[in-house]
Amino acid sequence: MIAMDPQLEPIAEKVYANQRLSPADGHTLLLSRDIWTIGELADHARRRWHGDTVYYNINRHMNYTNICALSCKFCSFYRKKDQDGAYEYPVDHLAQQAREAAEAGATEVHIVGGLHPWLGFDYYTDMLSAIRDAAPALHIKAFTAVEIVHLARISKRPRDIEGVLRDLQAAGLGSLPGGGAEVFDDRVHDEAFKGKIRSEQWLEVHEAAHRIGLRSNATILYGHIESLEDRVHHFCLLREAQDRAIRDNHPGRFQTVIPLPFVPDRSELEHLPGPTGLDDLKMLAVSRLMLDNFPHVKAFWIMQTLELSQLSLHFGVDDIDGTVVWYDITKVGGCGTHQEVGVTELRRAVRQAGFEPVERDTLYRHVDRQGATWRLAAEAHAEAVMGASR
Ligand code: SF4
Prior knowledge:
Elements lengths: L8 H8 L6 H9 L3 H16 L2 E5 L1 E5 L27 H13 L4 E5 L8 H14 L4 E4 L2 H10 L6 H11 L3 E2 L9 H7 L6 H13 L3 E8 L5 H20 L6 E8 L15 H14 L5 E2 L3 H4 L1 H7 L6 E4 L3 E2 L9 E2 L4 H10 L3 E4 L7 E4 L2 E4 H13 L1
Parallel strand pairs: 1-9, 1-12, 2-3, 3-4, 5-6, 6-7, 7-8
Antiparallel strand pairs: 10-11, 13-14
């Protein structure tokens, strides 16, 4: 029998009393080697929100270009214009990909890309409306905060983030995926991703999105040159931003936190070892415990592996992401692009871990599915009630 780390006892008392953890508590959790107690506490917190439900979705990732004006050190995705492997897809091609995804049963497309130096603002609004026309039922989750700031610049409205988001929303944008947050710290920013937006701007984009009714997610990229204090600070800034959205009754909110392990392969920080499986489990669990106002914690199986994601369901995770199909951002072990897991495999992983798999749409509404055809479970239920009352 392993004894509980005594430093975790006051934290456990707070978790069971449903009290907020302090930054010092976050630091203690990240330093502790008592992974079992941390997992138990995170599991307690996740069951308060979701019981034994675990969410997944049927989605497809799309990247419109990997050409980027920046050169972040941790990034293995970007290419310069004439470099081997550089690409930019025309709008028709992306609309066709979305149509195929919808025909195969996807409920969502997840779209991000590099900061292309020459594409105009129209390209982005045309892309959204072409996808909406090609596949009207698909939810379009697109663009990290740094892309939104880039779009504001190319639309010549650098200070009108809300106006730019409104234009994108009118063209079909449904929500923001939450990438590009990295770690909210100026030293890490200047060393590893100088040129990218700082934390204040990342948060400003998401707060503007929430004001106009767009929901969003938030990421944290850990396991590179950041300190444990930096990670805790990141959690606290996200938690405060969500507090503000709730206090001000914004129609949009953060839905999900997605801790992303740094993958060194092919990046300029390739010499770093990257996080271990225990780091991954601890970060997922501590995200759940620190971000007490975020309903969902997601394990992104592409980066954490399906096996570890399955185990993480006992460490505070309630979302195991989706079928993905194509993913080009990180290339674990040097392989890339086609990365897909079937629904049967996802559901089996969830059931084996002792949880109940529930298909969701992007906004966490339950989905009622017959093969590639689907509708929202609430609509199906309302129709069934109407049928019974006729
Ligand atoms: S992380 Fe994003 S902004 Fe930085 S180089 Fe890669 S694609 Fe460009």
